[in-house]
Specification:
alpha/beta, abc type-2 transporter like fold, 5-stranded mixed beta sheet, elongated
């Protein structure tokens, strides 16, 4: 028992000499608790709905007020149906509605009016929540509020429901969960492979072979790049395998050859950004265990806060900067645009620019950190 106690004390002493490890061990549970307690919600408050009001009457205003008040939506008035479709494609709105011209006239004649409702089906849970919220327009309270009473022509005792919502689901019209999850899954696979394998520089430190590499004529940039490129090639092969399987087995939609090319370019840029991040983690860490814990601190928020599972709009405002500081956020947005919405490179240009900025920034930071360690 004395030997066992001595071994236990020795191990605790060993752990206490690694403050970074202690921080990771206690920090990760706290991070998960905060994320699940505050950040992760499926319900979006004040969902954006683009509304084209062609009637422009008191009753059309009543409809918009009802959407905003009882449907828990944020109404954005637009000048045309094309703007509605563009806002749904860009993600600025999740719903779009047209209030047809002549609505008030048909209301006075006790006639029903069809209201086209355009739904972004990219995220099925969000689409279903939006369609459910639009049901307030067919509720009994709305019917009562839209009475067109005239003293000379009293309302009929039995009236037709004045509004019928006609749903048009754009992008993932069948609301398939696989079409929602698989594009992001491709990014998760790439990230896991790159960040798990890219601790090669740390391994050189642990094996005390880094000094032997430094005395060679190779530059610091070439040293870091040479350590990272093999992992990038492996990640690219994983990307090809996972994408082909997603297409063949689950019929992941691709909008023509242009979509395949765009997704491939996006994957290459994403891999380069993650390789640069992996290099930065390697220069900061002293052991592979530290590197793995730091990678976990990137992977967990990327899975939970990038929009891969939970909508970013549902995250509290004070936590959204964390979501927008993750490369995964921009990869998920862009790949869903290419596969589900048929977006062009120009329409997703911001995501490419941000990923490029991540790549350059992480590379410069890793080189600066490496020089400081050598000094």
């Amino acid at each position: 028992m004395r030997a066992l106690g001595a071994m236990i004390r020795k191990e605790f002493v060993h752990i206490s000499r690694d403050p970074q490890l202690i921080g990771f061990v206690f920090g990760l549970p706290v991070l998960l608790l905060i994320l699940f307690g505050y950040a992760l919600r499926l319900r979006v408050d004040n969902m954006a709905v683009a509304v084209l009001d062609e009637d422009k009457t008191f009753f059309s205003v009543t409809v918009k007020d009802r959407l905003q008040r009882d449907g828990d939506m944020h109404v954005i008035e637009v000048p045309s149906e094309d703007v509605i479709r563009q806002m749904l494609k860009s993600g600025e709105a999740h719903l779009g509605m047209v209030i047809p011209k002549g609505f008030t006239e048909r209301l006075a004649n006790n006639e029903r009016t069809d209201f086209p409702l355009f739904v972004d089906g990219t995220m099925p849970t969000l689409a279903q929540a939006g369609m459910y919220g639009a049901r307030v327009l067919t509720s009994d309270d709305t019917v009562d509020e839209l009475k067109f009473d005239d003293p000379d022509h009293p309302a009929l005792a039995v009236r037709k429901p004045p509004i019928r919502v006609v749903q048009h689901i754009l992008y993932n019209p069948e609301l398939r969960d696989s079409d929602f999850f698989l594009p992001g899954t491709v990014g998760i696979v790439i990230m896991l492979v790159v960040l798990t394998l890219s601790s090669g520089l740390v391994r050189e430190k642990e094996q005390a072979t880094i000094e032997q590499l430094l005395v060679t004529p190779i530059s610091r940039f070439a040293l870091i790049t040479g350590k990272m490129i093999p992992y990038g090639i492996i990640a690219a092969l994983d990307f090809v395998v996972v994408t082909v399987l997603a297409r063949v087995i689950f019929d992941l939609p691709f909008q023509g050859a242009g979509s395949v090319l765009s997704v491939s370019l996006l994957a290459v840029l994403f891999i380069l950004a993650l390789l640069a991040l992996g290099a930065l983690i390697s220069t900061v860490s002293q052991t592979q265990l530290q590197a793995n814990f730091m990678a976990t601190f990137v992977i967990v928020p990327s899975v939970l806060m990038s929009g891969f599972v939970f909508p970013i709009e549902a995250i509290p405002g004070w936590l959204r900067p964390v979501a927008y500081s993750l490369p995964m956020t921009y990869f998920v947005e862009a790949i869903r645009g290419f596969t589900l919405k048929g977006a062009s490179l120009q329409e997703q240009a911001i995501d490419f620019l941000v990923l490029g900025a991540f790549m350059v920034g992480f590379t410069l930071l890793s080189l600066a950190r490496f020089r400081k360690q050598l000094a």
